[in-house]
Amino acid sequence: MDWDIVIGIETHVQLRTNSKQFSGASTAYGSEPNSQACLVSLAYPGVLPVLNKEAVNCAIRFGLATDAEIASRSIFARKNYFYPDLPKGYQISQFELPIVNHGKLSISINGKEKEVRILRAHLEEDAGKSLHGIVQGKTGIDLNRAGTPLLEIVTEPDMSSADEAVTYAKKLHELVQWIGICDGNMQEGSFRCDVNVSVKKKGDTKLGTRREIKNLNSFRFIKQAIDYEVNWQIERLEDGEKIDQATILFNPETGETRAMRSKEEANDYRYFPDPDLLPLEVTANMIDKIKLSMPELPASVAERFEKNLGLSSYDASELTANREVTNYFNNVLQFECSPKITANWILGVIFSQLKEKDISISLCPISPAQLAKLIQRIEDQTISNNAAKKVFDALWQKPNTEIDLLIDELGLRQISDSGAIDQLVEEVINANINMVNEFKSGKEKAFNALVGQVMKASKGKANPTQVSEILKKKLTI
Amino acid sequence: MINLSLKSLNQGLVKKKFSSLELTQFFLNRVEKHNSDINAFISIDAEKSLTQAKHADALIQSGQNSLLTGIPVAQKDIFCSAGWRTTCGSLMLDNFISPYDATVIQKFNEVGAVNLGKTNMDEFAMGSSNETSYYGSVKNPWDLSLVPGGSSGGSAAAIAARLAPAATGTDTGGSIRQPASLCGFTGLKPTYGLVSRFGMIAFASSLDQAGPMAPSAEDCAALLNVMAGYDEKDSTSINHEKEDYLANLDEPIKGLRIGVPKEFFEKGLDGSVQKVIEAALMSYKKMGAELVDISLPNTHLAIPVYYVIAPAEASSNLSRYDGVRYGYRAKEYDDLMEMYFKTRQEGFGEEVKRRILIGTYVLSAGYYDAYYLKAQKIRKLISDDFKKAFEKCDVIMGPSAPSVAFKANEKKSDPLAMYLQDIYTISTNLAGLPGMSIPAGMIENLPVGLQLIGNYFKESQMLNIAHAFQKETDWHTRMPDGVS
């Protein structure tokens, strides 16, 4: 039997603010436990929440970036449950009236555009952490993270494969960094996904029962978890069993999912509007101000790259996958390098080096200015493309070396002196009379062989275009 | 130094008739002498108070003083005060030493007032007789067999017995006005948002409001001058222009339109209380005010609505008392769940647990719409009643409480009878309006309070209206026998 897979994703994006959602405590990661737990983080008697305006700005930026409706009035609600790392006994979140509604994000699947609808995005605060096993038999509570601002982004169930889900997650991950609202650090938990998965018989209109895989913090885990879960659900259904709604966890060690709690065990969160906070009003004026500070969005930049620079759609989208890459590319272009050659260098040589070293482009030892100079030396025929790669490798080792010195040091400067090339060609013609005759009797291949001989004689330094021109002239006299 | 107004005490200090140290020691001695009978204070820390008094004397010496500098103020134990045990009347916070000052406390500190001690109260401000306190019930100084009202019963008894010249209270459904009525002094619950709630331990956040408690309207005006003000640490605090509440006390009240709601004089009001209130209204008429019949048709819904909304908010506000970070934790438990259960079972008293249960219930899935949401809609209707009424009048008057002080234990086991104590005060909290109680007469040597309800931010006008009455009468200066 054929099955349809239905996937929706809820992503917790940690907002890049200096202080917490409702207090002035720092949000820096990795500090001594509880060193960033102020009285509000600790939920002392009598303390009150004060909304972080910067977090609101982040939510508005996200709304603008996804062409969403930004609510002029949204409400903070309390989500009540007991847990030791939830100091107030409730989480402040948005429930009925979130700040962002009905956005969309386009993803590209096998060259085809697909739109993922964003149902809503709401502001909330993170919980602290329970630390088990530091003291034998006891649990420690670290409230540094308690109160950290989050934007929870919820999609419609619009994805129909693990690949689509991962593509969406990557695109969202790129976008929130692009617009500067999240540092994107998945190891530190700045970007975590809850994935809702269900399956139904192909063509059925009614959705199957979903299970929610909690807290996936890598794209690989998202793929593995969905693949495992889809198979698990299909096997059950094919065996005539039914799926129960449940919250499940993915174990990266085993690659399996297991139920955390069933629907019956689910909490009744007793949501109600938080009486300590007024309704959040967002004015058109606030939105307009933020619009002015928004960067051009990646889709628009990619379109411009295609149209104005003549890049392929693939290159354009790769170069706009990440704002640092786009900036790097733009910075090289400032030196009036050819966009196509620059794109090829970044997506080819640079990307393979970055991947090998497992670093981001911000840590690339070769600056845009240096790459530009290297490309200029190809364009002005000082070095060949092959020689340029050698220069690049050397430059990677010694990033601050002057390029022209390096070219000379490596002896890679092309011979473009026509007198010198003329002499080399003359010598090769004299030494290879047979080949010359073959060429003259119509064997085109012999010409290339002669060029090769000249290049060999120049130890690769002769400018191949010039060699061809001079050789052709001499042979056709 | 007994029964002097805050202005007179200030004059005494400024003219060096006595020092703040002497004044503070005087009241500490009174507390020492009477507190075992009245139980008005939970915590006394003479050393801290006297240190503040010395500091105040230095301020006065250097001329950097204001009206309240050096004056001892009894603080309800709901206000977090740095270095002081702050219990909120509960075993749950019996060991809680606050590391910080509530904004109200900070404001008193800034003007050099002296914290005389922390007053007894119903546990987490839940009660109308001060019988739910973990620290024992408070006695009414007019008759020790009677209750002082609640929840600010400790502050009320302290004022009535002149153990302090001034005190603070909080009022969620009547907790300043009802004890002011039962103990015979002036108490004001300001407009919601006028006084910061930061550092005031939350009961029902959308209703809680701090206010002054003192013998006279003039004293209350002096206290409100210090307490009121926008606070960025409280998002519900309102950025209202700063006023001097002493400035308009002597304005004429001729032509004042007093709205008299018929619903405040129906079944449930003690007949002799009604007579006192009517007499007070006649006094106002004699002073040139006009009495206007008005109706607040949804008054009968105020108590049911309140007992949905207040417990709902309380059930969530009190979730933080879980034994994890501070406060009481059960001694023995096997796992986390048992720790939670035992801590909250043992740490909270009966009335608090009752309200947590009610609140949890009305917020539960399936009941939310029928209770919480409906109550919010009716709350709006109650506000609208007042809005209409204020088209016809400048101030509303009626009783503060349905009866004079009642016997201890009389209503303790009958929560519904107890809840009716706040029948005339609760609707102003629901609407966020300012309310006030002033002494208006006596029945068999027990005080009766007249309630004034003003429009939003009309505290200055209300104090003026109250002061006009107090210039004509001496009820607010009367003291129980045995106070000397």
Keywords, please?
heterodimer; A: 477 residues; alpha+beta; Arc Repressor Mutant, subunit A; nine-stranded mixed β-sheet; 15 helices; B: 484 residues; Amidase signature (AS) enzymes; eight-stranded mixed β-sheet; three-stranded mixed β-sheet
Structure commentary:
The complex is a heterodimer of chains A (477) and B (484). Chain A contains 15 helices and 16 strands. Chain A has helices spanning 53-65, 162-178, 219-238, 284-292, 298-309, 313-319, 323-333, 339-357, 368-379, 385-397, 403-410, 418-431, 433-440, 445-457, 464-475; strands at residues 3-14, 69-70, 73-74, 76-80, 90-94, 100-109, 112-125, 129-132, 139-142, 149-155, 191-201, 211-216, 246-251, 256-262, 272-273, 280-281. In chain A, the strands form four sheets. Chain A has a nine-stranded mixed sheet. A three-stranded antiparallel sheet of chain A has the order 5-4-15, with no helix packed on it. In chain A, helix 2 packs antiparallel against helix 3 and helix 7 packs across helix 9 (368-379). The relative contact order of chain A is 0.09. The mean pLDDT of chain A is 92. Chain B has 15 helices and eleven strands. In chain B, helix 7 (217-227) packs antiparallel against helix 15 (459-472), helix 9 crosses helix 11 and helix 9 packs across helix 12. Chain B is globular. The A-B interface holds A 39, 42-51, 78, 80, 82, 84, 87-90, 139, 141, 268, 270-272, 275-278 and B 79-80, 86, 88, 93, 96, 98-100, 102, 197-202, 204-206, 232-236, 312-313, 315-316, 318-320, 322, 324-327, 336, 340, 360, 363-365, 368, 372.
